[in-house]
Every structure is written in structure tokens, then in C-alpha cells.
Amino acid sequence: MTILAPTEEQEALRATLRSFFAERWPEEELRAAAGSAHGHDPRLWKAMAEDLGLHGLAIPEDLGGGGFTYPDLLVVFEEMGRALVAGPFFTSVAMASTLLLALPDRDAQERLLPGIAAGERIATVAAVETPTSWDAVRIAAEATGTGATRTVTGEKLFVLDAEVADVLLVLVRTEHGTGVAEVGTAAPGVRVEPMATVDPTRRQARVVFESAPATLLAPDHDATPAVRRMCDLAGVALAAEQVGGAQRVLDMATAYAKTREQFGRPIGGFQAVKHLLADQLVSVESARAALGYAAAATVTGAGLPVAASVAQALCSEAFSAAAETNIHVHGGIGFTWEHQAHLYYRRAVSSEVLLGRPRDHRARIAAHLLAPSEIP
Amino acid sequence: MAEFRSRVEAFLGARYPRRHETLRHGQGDDSLVGAAFRDSDDEAGDLRRARAYQRELFDAGLAWLSGPVEYGGAGLGAAERQAFAEVVRRYDVPDVNGLLVGQQIVAPAVLAHGSADQRARLLPALWSGELVGCQLFSEPDAGSDLASLRTRARQVDGGWRVDGQKVWSSGAHLAHVGELLARTSPDPASRSRGLTMFLLDMESPGVTVRPLRQMTGTAHFCEVFLDDVFVPDDAVLGEVGGGWAVANVSLSSERDNFGDESANLFIRLLDRLLLLGQEVGAAEDPDFRDRLADGYVRHVVNQVLPASLETATPEVATAGTSLVKLFATDADRRLVQLALDVLGPALVADTGAWGTYAWSRVLLGVHATRIAGGTDEIQRNILAERALGLPREPRPVREDRRR
């Protein structure tokens, strides 16, 4: 078992991103976006695309991207998680782009990916229909018609940033099993109903389709393998975000514990607080190790489904625990609206259940372990 | 690296069965004590087998992978060390527990602080299994606060005379050489500055070793009484008064290697728990599946965490061994608790069924890991202070100031 150690180029990218977000995404901007109608900052979005080419980083060059590797992109997610960047980047890049790249449909890739890579088109994935499971394979939404020309009828929940998206990639039932239907958000028969969300930086919506005109992508194929690949790769991207966020809240709590004094000394000098933070450090570093392991699997492809679930299970719990500890170490201040602690906590809990709860990922791992084979 | 791996595979494959081949529920010895937290029923036999295996490894150049060639090492890097650990984990090799103190605690201190003669004499011998080492640090009144130790070494003609009592010395009753930390400054308030490290010949007159029976029922760690023991000048390891720095090399290395050792044990316990779950019909139980998978997640992290920490910030990397140890002790306890929940009463009373009551020894033994090599609380202090930069613990009140 190996991890992918960061390359020099990735460390340089990390440094660039750290100063970019420090300058372009101060707390005022974050709060403005969080309080805005759609939780999206088009100016930042444009700068991310035009100044840094982040959206297309891992999209091949002949499809309008930068042709970098997926681990390079993971650095971006880690830094965005750290900075708590609001908006549809995760869904458009980690989900929709990944799904398109995994589908055997070159026309769709050429039609959609250059726009996504340039940040000119926002795509999202409409997958889940029931609130109890993230099981993308169990789908009721129908795509009637033949070949690529279809109409979609059904209802999807928890669709990320649907209000600002241009394109919906809708998981539907087809004669081959699962299909991916491309539907414009402005198309007739599409109704986007925003859901109230705990996390104001990543919005969700219910999307209702009533005979909405659609293009079925890779119409002769079952899209299940592509959907699974998207889940795995997006899971690793989410783990990267979570590690970035977890490190940030641990830094915040540690800095506060050094300066806040009670009983005549910094509270970070009391073992009750020191040990609390030491435990979070163990948790964050073990999450980072699991991320490194999963990042290596995105390159080799070996054992990616299990590695992605290992990372998701651990990184989800680590971020939530660190965000909770951060609130606690700050005491009353940590419970106020004005402090950032709740914003990170909101992101942590919404991420924890976004692509399957930790226990769902452990269930996947258990299924793998209990199949007859040697534990690797 | 592929070539190195196949060399290791060839060496082990010619001598030992693969772990997976020997693993069948109900077949063979169901004992879990062999590798379980330094607890064995047949230590002398284990040690004999370990030394024979170690000799073969040494002769094949596979014993001390990262060590310098002139002292019997293979001069290889961390990558080879990790590759070896991964491959050896797949084979049923003799348990080398009895040699680990010498190799992972004594040898690193000799390499870092020993004279040329000490290195040449001890390093190849410790790594070939010819010599067995033990650690003589803790005392009845000096545990976590090691710097308060009282064993005294008085300078005499040609060497030192040592009086005192050591405790929790794993394998001291079987060891040839002891890494002995003693106070050489007459001022007790000198604390860590007044300590010197010695390499004690365990056969020296005045050394009495008494094994202590531990809570598992076996006797593995020892009390060591030192009664006017003569130690020659050339047995001083490092500088006179510089013992604290030497001890820190040993302690850090002990924690560092704890990860490998613990990962080896962990995968064996996870294997057995998987079999057990299937055997007792727990394989469909969602709680069992959830916690077994959690065990697997921790197994993965056990293996990749040390490498990951090498890329962390310098502050975190420095305290990495404490972090690995805390992670591993927590993982061990979770797994043992799962065994208890799967087995229920069959873990605390022997039904005679294969591979069930055997877990009781692990349940009892697991508590050692949170104490040995620095308690969990000491590790948390180290992480908080060195990795996070939080304020240090208040300094002890010095006797002279109190007066």
C-alpha cells in the first residue's frame, strides 16, 4: 500500500491557490455568497477559470482542458475546502465532468466539456430520488423515446447547485439499465425548487421533470460503470475538500487556544484542551493519509472503489469531528453567527452525507472484505 | 523496487507458508498470543526460533534494511523497508518480538551515539540475533516522569558502580545487553542533565533479574535489581551526562517501530476476526460489518500513515511517531472490543470452540500498548506541544527551590 506524495508542481499549485483564495475570497466575500440567493460568486468563478484554469485542470487538452492529472485536481479541492469556497465547482467539475469523461460518448464530451472547462457552462448531476440512500443505481425517473432523443419524467432530490446550473445530467432508467440524460435547466418541463440547506455554501434543490426534452448520452450503453466511477472519483475529491476543511478548523482552534486566557494562562496549556486538540490532529493526519492512499488509487485504478470508500469514511468523520471541536474550543464565541466556526461545521455535516454516509462506505468495504479473497 | 520485492518473496516463499494458505477456521493452532502485545507462553522457544530466522535474514542481507553496510546493514531506504514489511506480512514467519527491543530501541541509540568499537561490536550482533537486548529505563518511582530516576552510578577506578532498581524491562531475563539509564550527577535536582547511558552486560555480578507476572498471566517484563554493579568506562554510551539525548533516540525509535509491529499484529487479528464472524454467523450482522470495515480502514491507515507523515509540516513530522502510536492503540482497542461483542460469553469462558477463547488473551494484553513506550497521555502532550505548539506542561518544582 502506498500513498501519493505531493510533487513539487503540486506544492507550487497549492501555494498559488492559498494566496489566490486569501486575496479573492476573504471572509466578507464568503459571507456575502453564503447569504446570497444562490450561494455562488460569479466574479470569483470567472477568476478561477480565467486566471487559473481550475475548472478544466484535469480535463484532457483536446476537450478544452489543461490535461493535468486527477491528483493535481485534488490539490485544488483541498485548498477550496480549506477556504470554504462556495458555489457549483464541486458538482460541475468533480461530478459532471467526471461523469462525462467516463461515458463512451465523444460527441457529448466535445459538446459539453470545453464549456465546463472554461467555466462558461455549469453542469450538475441529478441522481438521487429517495432521502434515505445514495444508491444511484436504484432509479425511477424514466426516459421515454428511442436512441438519443428522449423525454424525461421524474423527480430528483439533493441536486447540487441546480439553480445556477445550465445543464443537468439526469440519471434515468433505460432499456439498457441506467442512462444519463442531458437536460437544459431552462428546458420546458423542468422545475427547479430550491431546498432549504444547512450548508449555505453548497445549495441543493428538488428538480421535477415532466416530459422534459432530453438527449440520452451513450444511448446504447448501460451507464452504471460510468456512474460508479464518478462516485468513486468525486468521493476522493470530496475527501480532499474535507481534509482541507478539517485542517483549517484545527488550525483555527489551535490558534485560539494559544491566545485565549483563563485562570491566568492560555487555555491551550490545560491538558483537557491540549489532549482534545492532539486527538483531532491524529484524526486529521489519518484522514490525510487515507486521502493520499485514495489519490494513488485514482492513478493506478487498482482498488479505487474500496480506496475511495476508505477515504470517504475517514475524511467525513474527521472533518465533522474537527469542526465540532473547533466550536467547542471557542466556547460561547464559537456558537455565535459572527464566528466562522458554524460555517465550517455546516459544510462538514452536509459533506458527511453528500456521497454516502460513512457507514454506507463501510458497508461497501465490508462487502468487499467478506467476498472470498485475501485482505490486501 | 520490483526486483527487491521478488528477492524478498523468493527468500520467504522458500521457507515459510503464506499467511493466507495457513488461515482456515478450525485448523491449526488457534493461539493469538504469539504476536499479541509481547505476551507468549513459550518465550524461550519463541526466542530460539526468532534468532534462527533472524540469522537467516541477516545472512541474506534482509535483516537491517536501512542500516549502514559497515555495521551489517543493507544500506537501503525507507521504500525497501516498507516493501519488506508489506511482503513479510503475507507470510507466517517466526515471531521476532523477543529481538525487537535490541533492534529497535538499543541499536538506534548505539548507531547514533556509540563509539566505533561499540557500533562494530553490537550492531551486527543485535541485528543477526546473536545478542538480545533489553531496556533499563523505568523505575518504580520514575515512569512517565523518566527524568526523575534514582539509579546511581558512582565513578570508580576504570569505570562505574551502579546501584538501583529498574522495572518494566521487557525480556530482561533473556537479554545479553541492557541499555541502562542512570544518574551520574550527585545532585538529584539536575534531572535530565545528570543522566548517563550505559551498555550493561547482563551477566555482570550484582545484576538480579526477576520476571514480573503481568495481567495476562505470563511473565515477560522484569524487575532488574542492580547491586554495586561494575560497569567499565568503555560501556558508557554517548557522553557522561548526555544520557537524556541517548534515551530520546531510543524512545523515538521505539514509537516509530511500534507502527510496523502493530500493523503486523493488526492484520492478523483482522484476518481472524473476519473468519470468526463468518463462522459464528455474524457476517450478515450490519453492526459487525460496519465495525469490521472500520477495522479495515484503520488497517489501511496503519500502513500508510508513517509515509504520509513524512510529507507533513516539520512540526508534525517530528512528532509523527507519537501520532502513529496513538492511532494504532485506538485501532487495536476497537478491534478487540469487536471480538468481545462478536463472541460474547464465549470470550470470557472457554467453550472449547476453535479460535474463540483465544481472544481473551488479546483482550487482556491490549492494555499494555497504551502504557508501554510512553502512555497515550504522554503522546498527546508531545503532539500538543511539539506538533501544535501549545504551551508546555508546567515545569516540576525543583527540590532546591522548594527548600
Would you kindly provide a brief summary of this structure?
The complex is a heterodimer of chains A (376) and B (403). Chain A is an alpha+beta fold and 376 residues long. Chain A is built from eleven helices and nine strands.
Describe this structure in words.
- The complex is a heterodimer of chains A (376) and B (403).
- Chain A is α+β, with helices and mostly antiparallel strands and 376 residues long.
- Chain A folds into 3 domains: 110 residues, Butyryl-Coa Dehydrogenase, subunit A, domain 1; 99 residues, Beta Barrel (Butyryl-CoA Dehydrogenase, subunit A, domain 2); 145 residues, Butyryl-CoA Dehydrogenase, subunit A, domain 3 (Up-down Bundle), CATH 1.20.140.
- Helix content of chain A is 51%, strand content 16%.
- In chain A, strand 4 and strand 5 form a beta hairpin.
- The model of chain A has no long low-confidence stretch (mean pLDDT 95).
- In chain B, the strands form 2 sheets. A 4-stranded mixed sheet of chain B has the order 1-4-5-8. In chain B, strands 2-3-7-6 form a 4-stranded antiparallel sheet, with no helix packed on it.
- The radius of gyration of chain B is 22 Å and the shape is globular.
- The interface between A and B is large, with 44 and 50 residues.
